[in-house]
Amino acid sequence: MSKLVIFCDFDGTITIQDNIISIMKKFAPPEYLPIKENILGQKQSIREGVAEMFALLPASLKDQIVSYLLEQAQIREGFAEFVSYTRKHNLPLYIVSGGIDFFVEPMLKEFGPFSDVYCNASNFSGETIQIEFPHGCDEQCTSQGCGCCKPSIIRQLQDNNALSVVIGDSITDLEAAKMADLVIARDFLITKCEELNIPYEPFENFRDVMNIIDAKLGVEI
Ligand code: MG
Ligand code: ZN
Predict the structure, then answer these.
(1) How many domains does the chain have?
(2) Phi and psi (nearest 5°) for 128?
(3) Closest ligand to Cα 150
(4) pLDDT, tens digit (0-9, with 9 covering 90-100), for 58-77
(5) Closest-lying ligand to the alpha carbon of 148?
């Protein structure tokens, strides 16, 4: 049987919506909009843009933001079963997220523990929310502005005897997808994979993900 290591994105993959955008829509002044556009247009690095957007929010909003997300965010169908499935089959499951610890951790709490959770960090000691980047780019990363650098994390954790599976939905998963043995994709990541001829399997929920992995378990990719 093949050994697999799974790297799963959070925003837009485990959750239906992108949580940073939900936070900004609800709590930020309109100044966040040009920053968001610059990030999407690749005119500004994710790292710099995310830090600037959160700097628009008073640190005192922390608890309100977390309650808002816990109330409103939807977890994609089948995620809890998928976590049990990885435990049953002894498959390491790493969450690699461009989200921030103060909301990623409480939102994942009821589903864990995981092999590990990698995301950005936060500091509430100032007037406004400060974002910190404990998982920055290594020297091999071609972007150097990722914030939470998924390809660097995968390089660190990669086990040469195991096949790597990347599950994701967007541009921030692309560099990780290029390194993966199996890509399970939805939304914009599908568009990019097709553009670049990266083989992928499409998914809409975590039942699809389990079926895809089932089909690959025991089969060399
Ligand atoms: Mg995502
Ligand atoms: Zn990077």
Answers:
(1) 1
(2) -120, 170
(3) 2
(4) 999 999 999 999 999 899 99
(5) 2
